Amino acid sequence: MSISQNLLSSDNNSELDFDRLVDTLNRLYGDRDPVRIEHLELTASFSERLSGHFGDVLDQADRYKLRYASMGHDLLKGKFLSDSSQAEVTLNNVVVPVDLNRYVRLNLPTLEPFQLDDYFNTDIQLHALAAGIYLIMEFGITDTRILYPIFFHSCPILSVYEQLDDTTRLMVDLVTLADKLSSNHIKRKQSRPVPLNLELSVFGESNNEFNFTQGLLLARLLGQGRSTEKHSREMSEHYYQRLVSLNPFLGKLGGCPTIDMLREVK
Ligand SMILES: [Fe+2]
Ligand SMILES: [Fe+2]
Q: Cα dist. 122→14, 117, 233 in Å?
């Protein structure tokens, strides 16, 4: 079964109200969790930097969508949200679900056109599904080039990812990598232990290199962590094989590496 192009499309005249998204994020996180805003802004800035290497693939409309997806990907991830025992809360006049398990479960039909209604209990993560559902229901977003990067930023589902057009797949990859570049940067800035310096892996010592496929695998392994969930392993294997196709020596490693192989660095 393929994703219905009639129901879902990437159009170039989407009515993206970027200001409304930013206003909502500020209302939710501005005072309570400024690091969340920093993470989202940094994700947007990394995805813009990465996308500069794909100028012939992404047009201006796609770049705008990329920025939107980067800013919106963790819309419903605040710790203060998950600390509440309510099903939803109102913060600065914004009503948001906090019981994300319930929210996603009740809205599984919304995920059906995206072929994601069967992946409720996987590493795709509730906050990613919930953010996409929220943007569809409350913001009227329908554009697949915004929604798939958000749904898939923590773990794409390979069978669905493979059906996406090249540009949408690239945008999933860009947000996946930018998200991890951002969180890795912030953790290092806070002197928290991290398994690797992802910026160094992607941009090199000179800050002028561009090791995209390598970065993608590392970002995926960071996302997978110690999970052995089937779809998570499948997606890591996919990114590993892409890197092996560029560097056949890595194919001699004896399989996809795991996070435990990475030493802790500050
Ligand atoms: Fe996330
Ligand atoms: Fe994130």
A: 30, 11, 11
- Ligand at shortest distance from the CA of 183: 2
Q: What angle do CA 238, 146, 22 make, to 5 degrees?
A: 130
**Confidence band for 261, pLDDT divided at 50, 70 and 90:** confident
Judged by DSSP in three states, 41 sits in: helix
Q: Residue 152: nearest ligand to its CA?
A: 1
- 249 CA from centroid of ligand 1 (Å): 32
- Mean pLDDT within 242-259: 93
User: In this structure, which CATH number among 1.10.3210, 3.30.1490, 1.10.3430, 1.10.3470 belongs to the domain 18-192?
Assistant: 1.10.3210
Ligand 1 centroid distance, CA of 18 (Å): 19
Residue spans of the domains in the chain: they are 18-192
117: pLDDT strictly greater than 50: yes
Using the 8-state DSSP alphabet, how is residue 95 labeled? Answer: E
Q: Are 124 and 157 in contact (CB under 8 A)?
A: yes
Rounded to whole angstroms, the Cα distance separating 172 from 140 reads 20
Cβ atoms of residues 105 and 120 within 8 Å: yes
pLDDT tens digits for range 63-107: 999 999 999 999 999 777 777 778 888 888 999 999 999 999 999
pTM given for the model? 0.93
Ligand whose nearest atom lies closest to the CA of 154: 1
Coil, strand, or helix at residue 9?
Answer: strand
